Every structure is written in C-alpha cells, then in structure tokens.
Amino acid sequence: MEALAVCGGSPFASSSSHLLSPTQRNGSLSCNSSHKLILRNSHPNHGLSAFQPLSHLFLNSTSFPHAGKKSPKTHIFLPHLVASMEEIEETYIMVKPDGVQRGLVGEIISRFEKKGFKLTGLKLFQCPKELAEEHYKDLKSKSFFPKLIDYITSGPVVCMAWEGVGVVASARKLIGVTNPLQAEPGTIRGDLAVQTGRNVVHGSDSPENGKREIALWFKEGEVCQWTPAQAPWLRE
Asked: Which annotated residues bind ATP (predicted)?
C-alpha cells in the first residue's frame, strides 16, 4: 500500500505503515493548510481493477504537531473505507409456482438482468417433495411447514443461478421482505405479490447458502460459466 500526501498540489509518496504528518516525515514538508492523504493499492490488480477503489483519508487541522508545540485537535474523516477487492458471489433465485402460473418469470429475470448480474443457470422444474423438504429443512419445526411443502410442489418452479459482486445482498433488496404487504414499492414482492404464502420468489440469504442451494437444485453441467460482453460497461 502506498500513501500520497498532497499539499499545495504537490504529492509526496510515503509508506502506509507510517502515516506521518508532512512535518514529521524527515522535515521535508511544512504545511498549515488542510492535508489530504490518498491510500493507493500498489499490488497487482489481480484482474479486478474495478474492485479496488481509492480510499481517502482526510486530516483536517490548522497545523500538524511540531516538537515542543502543543498539538491541535485533528479530525479524521473516512468517507469510503472499503475493502480493496470485492468477491464475486453466487445466489440461488427461484420463481415459485404462483410466479410461474401468473406469468411473472420474464419480469423477474429482467430485473436481475437490468441490475447487471450474470445468469449462469436456468431451468423449469417440477420439485419433488424430498427436495422441497431438504431445501426448507430449517423450517421443519414450524406449523406452516406442511403447507409450504405442498405449495412448492404444487406446480413447476423456475430455478436460477446468478453471479456477481454483492449479488446476494442486492438480490435480497430486489426481492423485498418476506411479507409482500411490508415490502417496499419497487421490489419484486412489493410490486407483484400480496400475501406471505404466495410471495412469488425465493432468494438465498447468504453467500454460503447460495452455493449450497445451487448445488442442491442444479446437477453437474447445468450451471454455465461465461463472460458477458457488458462487463466493462458495468464496472470500471
């Protein structure tokens, strides 16, 4: 990691392991105005330069500490302290039987495509009872479990595997909360559903469950890896 200290328009490189004030760094720079340190990743971009944004550290003070002088208060502002690299995730999205019967499959797919996520798996599938019970096993103790299994196996579902940076959290936002009456307008459930028992679509709730559910619903060879032409137009 490399740090650039900018004063009066002149950058000075320093080690990020010692974020010293300009006057503390070999006495090479003295400046009484606000200073700006830019942290820049000096490692190779690993092919994901779009995922390595600059992080800015702003030090606002009337002056920097000098030996023998009283140190003024320094305010540190970190507006975008983010990881230098973001991971590509996978999520499992399923249009439930009510969504299929109501002809909402295309509408739901288009929302994910417009967001820029990559579709890697897609199939129309009649879910057997055993698979439904395995998928929803965490809800087995709930009183509504038998009705839930009957619902999921009542007609075909559309199974989808999607991929992208932050796709799990983004998909959850696109879908909306479980109860459609509480879901925000603009979400799939907020716009297209009215009851929890018929809430149209399922989405994985974590990256780990995304991988598990894709492996559960798709056989080997049914998920395809490909490079979309729009990739450079989505991220820098």
From this structure: 96, 144, 172, 178, 189, 199
Architecture per CATH, 84-233: 2-Layer Sandwich (3.30)
Establish whether 189 is an annotated binding residue.
yes
Q: Is 172 known to sit in a ligand binding site? A: yes
Q: Please, are residues 111 and 164 in contact by the beta-carbon 8 Å criterion?
A: no
173 annotated as a binding-site residue: no
pLDDT higher than 90, residue 72:
no
> Does residue 202 carry a catalytic annotation?
yes
CA distance 216 to 123: 13
One of 18, 35, 46, 202 is an active-site residue; which one?
A: 202
Question: pTM, whole model, 2 decimals?
Answer: 0.65
Residue-range domain boundaries for the chain? 84-233
pLDDT greater at residue 174 or residue 86: 174
* Side chain identity, residue 141: S
Give the pair of three-digit tokens for residue 218: 């798709």
Q: Which two tokens stand for residue 140?
A: 């087995």
